[in-house]
Design goal:
single chain, 445 residues, alpha+beta, Ubiquitin-like (UB roll), Creatine Kinase, Chain A, domain 2, 2 domains, 36% helix, 20% strand, globular
Length: 445
Amino acid sequence: MDKQRDFVLRTIEERGVKFVRLWFTDVIGTLKSVAIAPAEVEGAFGEGLGFDGSAIEGLTRSYESDLLAHPDPTTFQILPWRGEIDPTARMFCDITTPDGQPAVADPRHVLKRSLAKAADAGFTFYTHPEIEFYLLKSSSFGPDGPEPVDSAGYFDNVPGGTAHDFRRRSVRMLEDLGISVEFSHHEGGPGQNEIDLRYADALATADNIMTFRTVIKEVAIEQGVYATFMPKPMTGKPGSGMHTHMSLFEGDVNAFYEEGAQYQLSKVGRHFIAGLLRHANEMSAVTNQFVNSYKRMWGGDEAPSFNCWGHNNRSALVRVPMYKPNKGQSSRVEYRGLDSAANPYLAYALLLAAGLKGIEEEYELPLEAEDNVWSLTDAERRALGYAPLPASLDHALEFMEESELVAETLGEQVFNYVLLNKRREWQEYRSQVTDYELKSNLEML
């Protein structure tokens, strides 16, 4: 760590860095930033930077508001969009109390706790997210809703189109920040794009997702458009998911791989999927944390609505992707429920905890879904045991408040804050009169 700190201090001097932004995340997943002068960085490494935690959503109770942000030198990067004028760098922070204890409501610490539990069982947790978002002409919208930058579709090449240049610029910026990109392409909705980040351990991935969202927003501003990670910004168009591929490794060995097993999926992998399925409803208020998230889940267009798994079945909640011959390291499972607006630290902490619980308790994996689950009737789905996922945020909160796994993984303070905050959101949503009601009822009744 000292070597890493020396490297940071040396780089700041050599590159003429004028500002260093310290980044951390609140419980909902909003990025927080405070800029310090280069001269303050050494002190921040040694003692942390004090701030009022009670002013940040869910971070502390008001009577214990003093917190310290400790920059993690391994996350140091120069921010490419700041250019050569006043070069600016950033580091993610771990949040502690003044006596040096990890702040219980720091989402990064929640994930670190889950990863430590996995490490005790001999596992490292790797994730690879496919992040979808919409590019709109602006953040304002008329009676027809938001206006996308194009009307292209899945994998379309749009000559001279905004999205083309946008993706190229974004990918280059991400690579400059040390974030490897695997694919980028136009998605199914008008103005919808997807950029997939390369496999990394879950903590690095969560940090990368927070950086990714900032990069996308910055590039959009630069190009005169607006980027949104809202799960379902347009009626009748696909929602934006964050399908995440996951695997556990024991040292250099992929614990999900077993040669000769069905789909080359080991017993550990099967128990892990069973854990994801059994606890999916309880995790839903975190993996799909907004009222709008459920418009994506129940709006068709490849979002999973039912609790089941399948091999290469895109209508299932958990998918086992096609096996690549002679590539045992590539065995993985894909969780398709997560949307692009989730707090990645909390969501990955829960997905890992659910999978580990499945392994510990040796949960039995139900039969796989071979059909297109959306095209079945309700009676057929019931007969096959494909239970619906929560239909609304309110429904998801009912599952969450009964969940020992979620309470234990998030810790009491984060658990209670999420419930409180999300109940308030549901209350506000439920009490409004919508355009739909006025159009349907006003003249008729």
